[in-house]
Design brief:
heterodimer; A: about 120 residues; mainly alpha; 4 helices; about 0% strand; elongated; B: about 170 residues; 6 helices; about 60% helix; globular
Chain lengths: ~120, ~170
């Protein structure tokens, strides 16, 4: 089973790395948030799945102390899915209220609505 | 009403705390210390919620406890939501590597009325293809930062997919 764990960790880390590259490549705060929220949520989900599989294999091999691990990780995954977009929204909204304009934007209907 | 908020938040926090600390001792699954701390923290959360929720105009809604809605929520999370989440990540990964972007902020009117519904939709579209909720106005219209603006296609379909119909059945 360990190859499956390594595979899940690998995919997870690849997406986390893409998130980091997105921070470097994109031009302004809004586009960077795209990379920083989506890639890290998805990457974390794969890493959590890997941890769940690890916990289950330990339970199956007779170590009952790992019983709680998959449940804990499932709860953490649920909360990441709720809090991550909420945090991204808070940052984007704060940025817009501070008057940061989206760079390279072809359309800005919120900027028009403010005027 | 304050009592209802207190009770619901207390129960919810307590269940989450117990789930997170399961396996710590011998009273069923928990140790006495974990249960005591659970009660302490759940009480603190409930008291804070009592002060904040009414000020935001949030009321407890009995209709949301209907198990059919919870099953629909599960079907939504593992069906269309998971599918679009995966597609979103491949799409953003592609844009990170190639740098092809055409960003802009557009306004959409999803026509959802309740706060919980609009929150679910805003979070769902933040996690799906190239869209990020920036702000909301008094008509519950969302302002969405879209990484690849496409004026040709139907905006609502491109940004929200089938999410509003699902959320209407789950949360309205």
């Amino acid at each position: 089973m360990s190859w499956l764990i390594y595979l899940l960790f690998g995919v997870g880390m690849a997406f986390q790395a893409l998130g980091a590259i997105a921070l470097h490549r994109f031009p302004d705060v809004y586009t960077r948030l795209h990379g920083a929220t989506k890639c890290t949520t998805f990457g974390s989900m794969f890493i959590y799945l890997g941890v769940m599989v690890y916990g289950m294999t330990m339970v199956l091999s007779g170590d009952a102390s790992f019983m709680a691990l998959p449940f804990h990780v499932a709860i953490i995954m649920l909360f990441i899915l709720i809090t991550n977009p909420t945090g991204a929204h808070a940052i984007a909204r704060a940025a817009h209220r501070m008057g940061i304009k989206p760079k390279q934007a072809v359309i800005d209907e919120l900027g028009e609505a403010d005027r | 009403m304050t009592g209802a908020v207190l009770g619901i938040v207390f129960l919810f926090s307590m269940v989450i705390y117990l789930a997170l600390s399961a396996g710590s001792g011998s009273i069923i699954f928990w140790s006495i210390g974990e249960i005591a701390f659970g009660i302490l923290f759940a009480t603190i959360s409930a008291v804070i919620a009592c002060r904040i929720f009414p000020a935001l105009g949030l009321k407890p809604r009995v209709a949301l406890l209907n198990p059919k809605r919870w099953l629909l929520l599960l079907a939504y999370s593992f069906g269309p939501f998971l599918f679009h989440l995966t597609k979103a990540n491949l799409d953003v990964a592609y844009r990170v590597i190639t740098g092809k972007i055409r960003p802009g902020i557009v306004r959409i009117s999803p026509g959802l009325r309740t706060s919980i519904g609009i929150t679910m939709l805003a979070n769902s579209i933040t996690l799906t293809p190239g869209t990020l909720t920036v702000d909301i106005d008094e008509n519950k219209d969302l302002y969405v930062h879209w990484i690849n603006v496409d004026e040709e296609k139907d905006r609502m379909r491109e940004i929200c997919h089938s999410f509003p119909e699902w959320i209407r059945r789950v949360a309205e």
